[in-house]
Amino acid sequence: MQVTVTPSKIQGTITAPASKSAMQRACAASLLKGGETVLHNPGVSDDDEAALDIIYQLGAIVEKEKDTVVIRSNGVQPISQEINCGESGLSARMFTSVAALSQSPITVTGKGSLVRRPFSFFTDVLPQLGVDCTSNNGLLPLQIKGPLQPRDITIDGSLSSQFLTGLLFAFSAAKAKDVTITVHNLNSKPYIDLTLQVMSKFGLPVPVNNDYQSFYFPKDPSPVASTPSSFKYQVEGDWSGGAFLLVAGAIAGDIVVKGLDVFSTQADKAVLHALMQSGATISIEESKIEVRKSRLKAFHFNATDCPDLFPPLVALAAYCDGTTVIEGVHRLTHKESNRALTLQQEFAKMGVEISFQDDMMLVRGGAGVSGAAVHSRHDHRIAMACAVAALGASGDVIIEEAEAVNKSYPQFWDHIEHLSATLTTSKQ
User: Fold this and answer.
1) Catalytic residues, which ones?
2) Who contacts 304 (Cβ-Cβ below 8 Å, separation ≥6)?
3) N or C: which end of the chain has fewer CB within 10 A?
4) Which CATH class is domain 20-234?
């Protein structure tokens, strides 16, 4: 699909999509908790659908209703010898450890960019926990056979915190006692906060967090509060997707964004700090965030713990006077594309210069954004970043493979159009 974005002033009120980070964790927790769980405001992205299919393959009954998803589970009892994670890195990294709770042999597969991402973590770690695990030279597919047995273990958290999330869920479900997961170089700590928060809300045993350096499951854990036979969970709004809406407002709008929890543990809530540093005109209330176009200035932001903010922040920086510095470039290599290079190449087509210095990205802004033909590189966040940057450009921006947004935010084009952006859509 090809989408042409015509420079537009946007206005109106929009509700952010559901958080796929919270939705996928809720799927895992629903499977492990057992009983009935009703998810309100469920996500509808490709990644969310992948997570629902995975828990179905692992034994849950999943029923979709109008505005809810009902999940019934008796724990991990696979009905299939394969789980397909689509292109979801979180699902692959989280559900591999969860699936390893079963003694049945299971193959973990994926598609698209996911089959090029590294998974040697599991061949290093799972055998230490009693799980047979082989891979395709460190890539998917993985073949695993449990059951996983919680033991003291030390892991590297530098590539992604999502591996730790899977182990925390698995250890909790296996009723780990007097064991510790020690972590070196943990990145994206706010996402671990989200994992622990979801575990607690679902009544799963939660380990003691020792300053993110280790997670201890006590020998005599505190009693876990029982959850109702039919447990209800509200999936919160997505700060990752909402960041694009907020940046769009700062570049070209006068908009109100609802559905974002300002008290959320989601890492990408940090977009608010970047917006404030840039001098954006923004009003933050508990139930809504208002943002409108204003003169913007360069900012310095560390995105090591929130690498998904790079694309919207590059779009923001393109309109900021001066050179913006964003730290944490090393976190961008193993995404749907090599996002550092992809951002540099696609924004160059729009006349925005991006360079690198050590672990920093430097974006030279304020010189204007030109109309151009760009490509999503099959990366949802690149498509959205280009679209947002296009709103204040000097001419139309044509985005190829624009359907990439379906991975995380399938309503994106509808939402932008609802805010009065002028779009033209055509099949390629």
Assistant:
1) 308
2) 187, 327, 328, 331
3) C
4) alpha beta
